[in-house]
Amino acid sequence: MAVENDLGRDEVKKLVWRIAIPSMLGQFVSVLYSIVDRIYIGNIPEVGDLALAGVGVCGPVVTMVGSVAFLIGVGGAPMVSIRMGERNFAEARKVLANCFLMLCVFSVLLVGGILPFQEPMLRLFGASDATYPYAQRYFTAYLCGTFFALAATGLNQFVICQGFAKAGMKSVILGAALNIILDPVFIFVLDLGVTGAAVATVISQAAGAGYVLRFLFGKKAMVPITFGGYDLRIMGRVMVLGFTPFLIIAIDNVMIIAMNAVLQQFGGPERGDFLVTCNTIVQSFMLVVTMPLGGISGGTQGILGYNYGARRSDRVLKAQKYIVGLCVGYTAALFVLARLCGPLFVRLFTQDASLAGQAFEAIKICTLAIIPLGVQYELVDGFTGIGQVRLSLPLSFWRKLCYFAAIFALPAAFGAEAVFYAEPISDVLGPLVTVVVYFLFMKKILARREAAPPEQISAGK
């Protein structure tokens, strides 16, 4: 069986680059799912700005639904990698079988649990009378494709963790390219507006999901999808490990929701919708920062998990050194691009000079401290990749707590626009604590793994 990347024997630096770059590019392309929708929606004649605000309100809820894919995918993929490192492929297949069942069940529960309550949810999250109709239409159509969204994102983690980073990237590119083609057709040619944008996204996600399913049911996968062997203990372990990335995404979206609500409150009737539209553009740029960054740190978890399972601490530490370098390099490049290309970016969404100017200033504020954010992402995802959720979860929660507190404190003291400073405050305080914890605990964790008796390792402890 041909292996794209040998996680245990290939030279570490080359291995990191071969997996991290396709994973980063795949996530960069996946950003186009939401950004392309918003660009086209923002340019709908006469109602573009209001429609963009409406989609911005439901955007965090849509992403929160998608975070379930990370709960299961990022929770199960490190377990598969560790079992592969232990050469326990039967147990790896069992983990994937349980994860596939969980994705199917959650896709049904989410639709049934959310659809009846969409109006109070969207109203609570910042939709006004003017923007609610657009939010409702987009959200309803998108929710109908929940299974495709969960399968495309969640199962792709199991492709990447086996070393097939290029295949994972291809699935994302397929969906994103199709979305770019279909968006103008459904929005403008068929005159479906925001509903058309959601339908185009669902079709695109279905194509990506189909690609991933074909791969994982095929002969190329070292750990394919199988049926049977369902175990509540495995499901529980998956959810424990996946809770950190799930919580990161969920709280990120709660934060955006809170920001929209705060902007409506402090902006008042005159500036509320204006500032929510501005925040939609800003958060679109932040997706360009965080999703590819997560592609680097999350996509390379398989390297860490595999070598942790194989008791190769030297390879774990060496890989982390290169991964941190890539993460910091990426955030440094985005720091510069935010200032050089920010005006061009915001003009993709709106031709209103006042709105464009406000959005550019907010982007510069939000990206003030994104370079340390690169360190935060890798160290937290690194702990998750080797199964140390007891450290990754509180470290994630600490940064989010700083962010959440600043969202409410800053506008109360300095006005609505001050809310954008919550991002750099958390991007400094979060990494400071994470770096200290890493140096205190990482080598001790690896030493314990090296010293653990074989029977304890085979039990997954």
Number of helices: 17
- Basic shape: globular
User: Regions with pLDDT < 50 over 5+ consecutive residues?
Assistant: 457-461
Q: Measured on Cα atoms, how large is the radius of gyration?
A: 21 Å
Q: Let me know the average pLDDT.
A: 84
How much helix is in the residues? over 70%
Protein name: Multidrug export protein MepA
Pfam families: MatE
Family: Belongs to the multi antimicrobial extrusion (MATE) (TC 2.A.66.1) family. MepA subfamily.
Keywords: Antibiotic resistance, Cell membrane, Membrane, Transmembrane, Transmembrane helix, Transport
Topology:
Elements lengths: L11 H31 L5 H38 L3 H26 L3 H7 L7 H12 L2 H9 L1 H5 L4 H25 L3 H24 L15 H68 L1 H9 L3 H35 L5 H14 L3 H16 L3 H26 L7 H30 L2 H5 L3
Protein name: Multidrug export protein MepA
InterPro entries: MATE_fam, MATE_MepA-like, MATE_MepA_subfamily, MdtK-like
Main location: membrane
Explained architecture:
This protein has 461 residues and is mainly α. The protein has one domain. It contains 17 helices and no strands. The chain has helices at residues 12-42, 48-85, 89-114, 118-124, 132-143, 146-154, 156-160, 165-189, 193-216, 232-299, 301-309, 313-347, 353-366, 370-385, 389-414, 422-451, 454-458. Helix 12 runs antiparallel to helix 13 and helix 14 runs parallel beside helix 16. The longest helix is centred in the middle third of the chain and has 68 residues, at 232-299. It is globular, with a radius of gyration of 21 Å. It starts with 11 loop residues before the first helix and ends with a helix. It is a multi-pass membrane protein. Its main location: membrane. This is Multidrug export protein MepA. Belongs to the multi antimicrobial extrusion (MATE) (TC 2.A.66.1) family. MepA subfamily. Pfam families: MatE (PF01554).
